[in-house]
Design goal:
The complex is a heterodimer of chains A (291) and B (814).
Chain A (H helix, E strand, L loop, with lengths): L6 E3 L4 H10 L6 E3 L5 H6 L7 E4 L9 E3 L3 E5 L4 H6 L1 H6 L1 H7 L5 H6 L2 H7 L5 H8 L3 E6 L2 E6 H4 E3 L2 E2 L6 E8 L6 E8 L6 E12 L2 E10 L6 E2 L1 H7 L6 H13 L11 H26 L1
Parallel strand pairs in A: 1-3, 2-3
Antiparallel strand pairs in A: 4-5, 5-10, 6-7, 6-10, 8-9, 11-12, 12-13, 13-14
Helix pairs in contact in A: 5-8, 10-11, 11-12
Chain B lengths: L30 H5 L15 E7 L5 E7 L1 H5 L3 E6 H7 L22 E2 L5 E7 L2 H8 L3 E6 L6 H4 L15 E9 L2 H7 L2 E9 L11 E7 L4 E6 L8 H8 L6 E5 L14 H13 L3 E4 L2 H7 L7 E9 L5 E13 L7 H7 L10 E10 L13 H19 L3 H8 L6 E2 L5 E2 L4 H11 L2 H13 L3 E4 L2 E7 L22 E7 L5 E5 L9 H13 L7 E4 L16 H28 L6 E4 L2 E4 L2 E7 H10 L13 E6 L20 E14 L4 E12 L6 H21 L30 E5 L21 H13 L8 E2 L3 H13 L2
Parallel strand pairs in B: 1-12, 8-30, 10-11, 14-15, 21-22, 28-29
Antiparallel strand pairs in B: 1-5, 2-4, 2-6, 3-5, 7-15, 8-13, 9-10, 9-12, 13-14, 16-17, 18-27, 19-27, 20-21, 20-26, 23-24, 24-25, 27-28
Helix pairs in contact in B: 10-11, 11-19, 15-16, 16-17, 18-19
The chains are: A alpha+beta (291), B alpha+beta (814).
Bound molecules: flavin-adenine dinucleotide.
Chain lengths: 291, 814
């Protein structure tokens, strides 16, 4: 369980990072963020990058600020810093709640927001949250910068819209202060382990009527997916218990998660049902409390 | 039963009351060094010039090795040697093996000609660092010719199944049907027979530090020193020397603390043999420390993996008459300890119940998996689970109360010989049960269960009562065949006590590397009890095997009882000498002296007195004050032999006494099942254990908590999953799930003390703790919760997948 040899550099600017990636393109370079996914993969020799560009000294990637209507999180902001940030608690409490399910505190002290999104594990919490919150992902690469909506960023298991030599620089999340209710609910076999299924839900209400619902799932497909059928079923209703059941069934009917040793397709679908119901109920009750 | 020929039991002891130290929850002597990170594990030790070994493991479950090219690896930077399986077979003989037919299922440190499971070692590299060693592994080119794998234990026994060992001519390494008592008569007399098919899947002990060894071969003298966190096993050391083809008196094994074992380091010889082989090849110290993948896939210590077909014969009032057990056990590719796991089961096969007769059929299947070794319970915990599922099912089918059916059948007269011939020394099963019902608030939870059911919630209460046999004797290894392999085996354990010139006491232990248990605390408390000193003032050292006295080491919950015997014996010798010396010092008759509060004094005139320090300084420095035959110093050793073990009868209808000190426990978990997700969560958990006289209630409670946590793992989470191709799907903790502190509930622990009549202070072993009971109790609890749905889980671990599949199946069959 030791990685094969690799070269290493820790530059201080995004430009240098991009130059190093370009100059070492033959060595299948990778950027190193918190290392909590990449280093295990290297120890298992499942990833064998010949060159590692460590982002830890790149200050530009460590911003955490609120602009007028967006929360901006630099790719290298540690997950625990986000979890503890009062600004994030106000602007995107869903993200804080979801981070509580990501591994354990020591791992979150190293792990970064950008690393989790770029890693694009289909079971991970943050990609589902990014999708639910309509986040935008900013990238920098040889041909300049891009802004990619979360809905277009995740392409498959451990696969994103990032091109070779391109890095994620920041995440921009629309602020939702004081509107609606949110919830992150998941089912993991043991605490801190990757979940079988996770659900992120944001529900907005006006006068007891659901005016908007954004519900996404992790763990049920090769990327996080939107539970569009559930969103439709809830919109415009008062979301009573029967409606919630309709929404849950509608969403579950569209799922066919791949089975593995921790759960068959049927088991994961059953669990998704439970998480969907739990997520919708919790988000609704918080939306109602808000008023 | 052939009772007539039974040898007499040992004499009944009287235990002193008013103990000062035995029974106190003192702080452990071991803790300060481990808590400060000064434990000195293998990973902490570096010898000058030490090289590192990595093992190339097989990616195939079953394949012929048709070629190995090591040229590129040998040429890689920092590489000192590459040794293939074929070369290793010249450098070493097969590993020590207690299996039924080692010549036909030969086990070596590296595979030769054919690999038999994913993870089996094929070659090793010795290099300057573990990094370079692993880089070179990637350069070894092995040609494999894949063979069809054998994965399912029952299919393995089918005619025409591919053979794991061609020389054996079958995948059945052992088969025998034992009959104890009048099974046919008892079945004929019974009103009902409850049958079931049960499946216990494999899991294993998960030490934080894996198995490792540092070997240092001294070319000039031919001396080999091996530091290893395996059991040093002084008494069986000559077998390792045999494997290495060196004289036993050239080998010294030095015990290192183990970062956990739970059985999984029991007589683990392979890493030591690999390190020693490599050290000899390169002439430098060499370390081989398994990494997690090595350990999970190639540790030789997977736990039991059984299929059971069971019939329990009862009367309608719940009286148990007889049991027929038919089990196939998946041993994996080798069978190093034979079917000793079933000997452990037979030691307590009828549990705490009066069951008059037993039929026990065991078949050991060989498959393409890592082999079984030891895991806390050594197969007896599986029997506990099986028996309790049967009792539970019987109660349900007969409409009897689960508490009362157990109580109705309890053994109450001791010593009690069970049908297999083993003896239960003492017990108070009613007392334990009463305590447990109270501690668990049993009636309260039954009421809660009724309420919860009305709300559509599924709460289950899992009461079980079960045995914890202790102080194993290897005599059980010899009864499997008609001709015994050996006579009665004593499994000794030794302690040396030295009183220095100031009266300070040092105890030397001989095979007891620290395993996460508390040998130092135990010995210190026992010494303090004898000498009226503070246990924290007792100094403990470990001796290597070469200068060691006979010692077997931990296993089968034997350490504390055996160490107690050795401390008692060494103390008696020291006190005899001290008494005689005091006689001279006080010019008194030694017979008129009595030991009081740390010294000898004349009976009736306490002012005529010498403390241990006063006696010791005289004996150390002023020998000529004493008669000619008294030697200087005050140091004595005791080799303590197993106090009670006997041979099997010739017809094997009585296996003799091999596990006589019988602990008992009652566990009562209360759980809730979420029937939509299959999640099981704990609402409460109470456990009452009776391990005879308690030495340290707190450290015993540690065994109960740790063992229960592992039992929760076995019941709900942990499984080494091999797919149909024999690929190990759970090769890291990403997929091999261990319960965390959050999954393990806070335990309510109760102790009950029924002293053994045959051990020092009446102590029984308790090292296997909660794992003996928790899997059985949690399974009963889940079935209790799901009974209204007509669901009964018969397979461990009860994962969400299995629970939901059972619920779906029950729905469909309605
Ligand atoms: C025991 C354990 C449990 C875990 N449990 C969970 C869990 O429950 N849920 C969960 O979501 N995660 C879990 N993780 C993973 C953890 O959250 C990681 O921190 C995260 O997935 C990756 O973040 P990182 O900063 O460590 O990235 P790294 O490991 O450093 O990088 C991950 C990948 O992303 C790439 N990358 C990183 N940053 C960038 C960037 N700015 N631009 C382009 N590519 C980039 C790297 O090249 C690499 O391929 C767990 C990890 C461990 C060790």
């Amino acid at each position: 369980m030791k990685p094969p040899p690799f070269r290493y550099a820790a530059p201080t600017s995004v430009e240098e990072v991009l130059d190093l990636l370009a100059a070492n393109a033959d060595a299948e370079p990778r950027v190193l963020a918190g290392g909590q996914s990449l280093v295990p993969l290297m120890n298992f020799r499942l990833a064998q990058p010949g060159f590692l560009v460590d982002l830890r000294l790149v200050e530009a990637l460590t911003t955490l600020r609120t602009e007028r209507d967006v929360l901006v999180i630099g790719a290298m902001v540690r997950q625990s810093a986000v979890e503890r940030s009062p600004e994030v608690a106000l602007a995107a409490p869903l993200l804080v709640e979801a981070l509580g399910y990501v591994a354990h505190p020591p791992i979150r002290n190293s792990g970064t927001v950008g690393g989790s999104l770029a890693h694009a594990d289909p079971s991970a919490e943050l990609p589902a949250v990014a999708l639910a919150l309509d986040a935008e992902l900013l990238t920098a690469g040889p041909s300049g910068t891009r802004t990619i909506p979360a809905a277009e960023f995740f392409r498959g298991p451990f696969t994103t819209a990032l091109e070779p030599g391109e890095i994620l620089t920041e995440v921009r999340i629309p602020r939702r202060e004081g509107v609606g209710g949110y919830a992150f609910v998941e089912f993991a076999r043991t605490h801190g382990n990757f979940a079988l299924v996770g659900v992120a839900a944001v529900i907005e209400m006006e006068k007891d009527i659901v005016t908007g619902a954004s519900i996404t799932l992790s763990g049920v497909a090769s990327t996080p997916v939107r539970a569009a059928a559930a969103e439709r079923a809830l919109a415009g209703t008062s979301a009573d218990a029967a409606t919630i059941e309709v929404a849950v069934d509608a969403a579950a009917d569209e799922l066919s998660p791949a089975g593995d040793l921790h759960g068959s397709t049927a088991t994961r679908t059953d669990i998704a049902r439970s998480c969907l119901r739990g997520g919708i109920q919790l988000a609704l009750s918080r939306a109602q409390d808000r008023r | 039963m052939t009772t007539a020929s039974r040898p007499a039991p040992p004499p009944i002891r009287t235990h002193k009351d008013g103990r000062n130290w035995v029974g106190k929850s003192i702080r452990r002597l071991e803790d300060p060094k481990f808590l400060r990170g000064r434990g000195g594990y293998i990973g902490d030790m570096t010898l000058p010039g030490m090289l590192h070994v990595a093992v190339l493991s097989s990616p195939y479950a079953h394949a012929r090795i048709t070629g190995i090219n090591t040229d590129a690896a040998l040429a890689a930077p920092g590489v000192h040697a590459v040794i293939t399986g074929a070369q290793a077979a010249e450098l070493t003989d097969p590993l020590p093996d207690f299996g039924p037919n080692p010549a036909a299922h030969t086990w070596r440190c590296l595979a030769v000609e054919k690999v038999r499971y994913v993870g089996e070692g094929v070659a090793v590299v010795v290099a300057d660092s573990r990094y370079l060693a692993e880089d070179a592994l990637a350069l070894i080119d092995v040609e494999y010719e894949p063979l069809p794998p054998v994965v399912d234990p029952e299919r393995a026994l089918d005619e025409g199944a591919p053979l794991v060992h061609e020389d054996l001519g079958s995948n059945c390494a052992y088969e025998r049907t034992f009959q104890f008592g009048e099974v046919d008569r008892d079945f004929a007399d019974a009103d009902v027979v409850i049958t079931d098919r049960l499946r216990w899947r494999r899991s294993g002990g998960q030490p934080l530090e894996t198995v490792g060894a540092i070997a240092d071969f001294e070319v000039a003298t031919g001396q080999l020193t091996v530091h290893t966190n395996s059991l040093s096993f002084t008494s069986y050391l000559f077998m390792v020397a045999g494997t290495l083809k060196i004289p036993a008196n050239k080998l010294d094994i030095r015990p290192m603390p183990a970062g956990g074992s739970f059985g999984s380091k029991l007589f683990a010889t392979k890493p030591a043999v690999i390190a020693a082989m490599c050290s000899r090849a390169v002439g430098r110290p060499v370390v081989y420390l398994e990494d997690r993948i090595d350990n999970i896939s190639n540790c030789d210590h997977h736990g039991s993996d059984r299929v059971y077909d069971v019939q329990l014969a009862l009367m309608r009032d719940g009286t148990m008459r007889s049991i027929k057990i038919d089990t196939v056990d998946d041993y994996g590719a080798y069978i190093q300890f034979g079917v000793g796991h079933h000997g452990n089961a037979l030691a307590q096969v009828v549990g705490p119940y009066r069951i008059a007769s037993v039929e026990y059929r065991v078949r050991a299947a060989l498959t393409n998996k890592n082999q079984q070794g030891a895991y806390r319970g050594f197969g007896s915990e599986v029997n506990n689970w099986m028996l309790e599922q049967m009792v539970d099912k019987a109660a349900r089918e007969l409409g009897l109360d689960p508490v009362e059916i157990r109580r109705h059948n309890f053994i109450r007269d001791f010593p009690y010989f069970i049908p297999t011939g083993n003896v239960y020394d003492s017990g108070d099963y009613d007392g334990v049960l009463d305590k447990a019902l109270k501690l668990a608030e049993y009636d309260h939870w039954r009421a809660e269960q009724v309420k919860a059911r009305e709300e559509g919630r599924y709460i289950g209460i899992g009461l079980i009562t079960a045995q914890e046999r202790s102080v194993f004797s290897a005599t059980e290894f010899w009864f499997w065949f008609d001709t015994p392999g050996a006579p009665v085996t004593s499994m000794p354990e030794s302690v040396t006590l030295k009183v220095d010139a100031t009266g300070g006491i040092t105890a030397t232990l001989y095979s007891c590397a620290f395993w996460g248990n508390s040998p130092e605390t135990m010995v210190a408390q026992l010494v303090a009890e004898e000498f009226d000193c503070d246990p924290h003032d007792v100094s403990i050292v470990y001796q290597g095997s070469k200068n060691g006295l006979p010692a077997t080491g931990p296993g089968g919950s034997r350490t504390t009882v055996m160490l107690a015997g050795a401390v008692e014996g060494a103390t008696a010798k020291i006190k005899a000498k001290a008494r005689r010396a005091t006689g001279y010092m006080l010019e008194a008759n030694p017979d008129d002296l009595e030991w009081v509060d740390g010294g000898y004094q004349v009976k009736g005139s306490p002012e005529a007195r010498k403390t241990l320090a006063e006696i010791a300084v005289m004996l150390h420095l002023f020998k000529h004050s004493f008669p000619e035959d008294m030697e200087s110093g005050l140091e004595e050793s005791k080799v303590f032999d197993h106090p009670y073990t006997t041979m099997p009868s010739a017809d094997r209808k009585d296996l003799g006494v091999f596990y006589p000190f019988m602990g008992h426990a009652c566990h009562v978990p209360v759980i809730e099942v979420d029937i939509e997700t299959g999640q099981v969560s704990f609402l409460s958990y109470a456990a009452v254990h009776d391990c005879g006289t308690l030495v340290n209630p707190r450290s015993l409670a540690g065994h109960i908590v740790g063992g229960t946590a592992q039992g929760i793992g076995t019941a709900l989470y942990e499984e080494f999953v091999y797919d149909e191709e024999g690929q190990l799907l759970t090769s890291s903790y990403l997929d091999y799930l261990i319960p965390t502190a959050i999954e393990v509930p806070e335990l309510k622990i109760g102790h009950h003390e029924t002293p053994s009549p045959w051990t020092p202070h009446g102590i029984k072993g308790g090292g296997e703790g909660g794992r003996m009971m928790a899997p059985a109790a949690i399974n009963v609890a889940v079935n209790d919760a799901l009974a209204p749905l007509g669901v009964r889980l018969t397979e461990l671990p009860m994962t969400p997948d299995r629970i939901l599949a059972a619920i779906r199946a029950a729905r469909e069959s309605r």
